[in-house]
User: Fold Alginate O-acetyltransferase complex protein AlgI from Murimonas intestini.
Amino acid sequence: MVFSSLLFMFRFLPAVLILYYLAPRKIRNLVLFAFSLFFYAWGEPKYVFLMLFSITMDYTVGRLISRAKEQQDMKKAKRFLMVSIFMNVGILAFFKYADFIIGSINGAFGTGIPLLGIPLPIGISFFTFQTMSYTIDVYKGATKAQRSWINYGTYVSMFPQLIAGPIVQYKTIARQMRDRRENTDDFVAGINRFMIGVGKKVLLANNIGKLWDTISAMPAGEIPVAMAWLGIFAYAFQIYFDFSGYSDMAIGLGKMFGFHFLENFNYPYISKSITEFWRRWHISLSSWFREYIYIPLGGNRKGALKQVRNILIVWGVTGVWHGASWNFVMWGLYYGIFLLLEKFVWGKYLEKLPAFVRMCYSMFIVLIGWVIFAFDSLGNGTAYIRALFGGYGQGFINSETIYLFYNNAVLLVILFAGATMLPAKLAGRLMERLKGHEWVCVCIKAVFYGAIFFVSVAYLVDATYNPFLYFRF
Assistant:
């Protein structure tokens, strides 16, 4: 079940909201927990037991770490923490990377070990990182161990952010788990944010995704330069509006239930460096790796060589986190190298260039990175990069490129504008001019959000194309 579906919006969500708000406050977490398990079971019922095992394991380990610390036995506490990390990484490695490891061994040594063919549990990368961050924070003293299994289970399985993030660290919502107070303003803001997310996903990401599918399905050797660039811009917009749309929906849903999740995107395509890009893209993931891997490895505190090592480790793991394929490893290391170059080689010179030049530099690197990311086969990705630079002699443009561009010209203008702060600034100016006319502002907002939602639903009624890119992560 995906958020951008009629089933979710008109059956599941109304049912959970009605029962949640009818329930006494003291059992609202139980209601949310039960519906979240049902939501997860809709996609793969048997993996609910895997999630329940993960919840119970880390809940128990958190309590044991807390007790060991009360007894001032840090060695025992550390052993419990190691059990949690080993089990979580082991579960993730088995379900997500077993076939990748076996396939790599077969390719390297010519063996014929059969693949396991295990279906990937939905959202396993997200909820595994959440449970690990909880036990680590309990050990570090950054948060107290949760005493209620129901409350902890609600945190791990909460359907608004379960399948696509943002990755929510327990310490950021610990107080909200026990004494949040839902209110009308948050509920309305949550509905509006959810509608914006639906519009991003359904009207923008889905439609530009069709253009990418058309171009990427062509043999790379037959694609002229302009078409190749049009295609990778389409993919860049698809993945941004798909993922940021889901983050908007998750944040909006959280507000409906009284939770305040941290932002996950901050206009990444206006970045003026790759370092800035990763402060703006998938913020919760970048923050997780920085706090739980980069800093524990020593960060930048132990000399330049170890800092280089730490950055490459973090970005190698970042690539692997996204998928069990060598292209993701290369994608992670690709960004690690550019971050190192900005830090140690040309970062100080980059800052002296005009802002527009820096934005073009950043976007160019990001687009090449998306090619590596988009193709599971390194060979296909390399072939597409070759097409970007005219390596097949197909010329710069052809009639089909012009046709595809004109068919998507209006959408592309909307996407370019939507990826910047321009719409927010224009809306802010309009609201400023209408200051003192609150009812006019309310009506304009209601019409705007309502129109987005109505058109999105109308699109979904007949739509057969509604992919979700981050399910595989």
User: Anything to note?
Assistant: The chain has a mean pLDDT of 93. The radius of gyration is 23 Å. The CA atoms of residues 33 and 154 lie 5 Å apart. The first helix runs from residue 6 to 22.
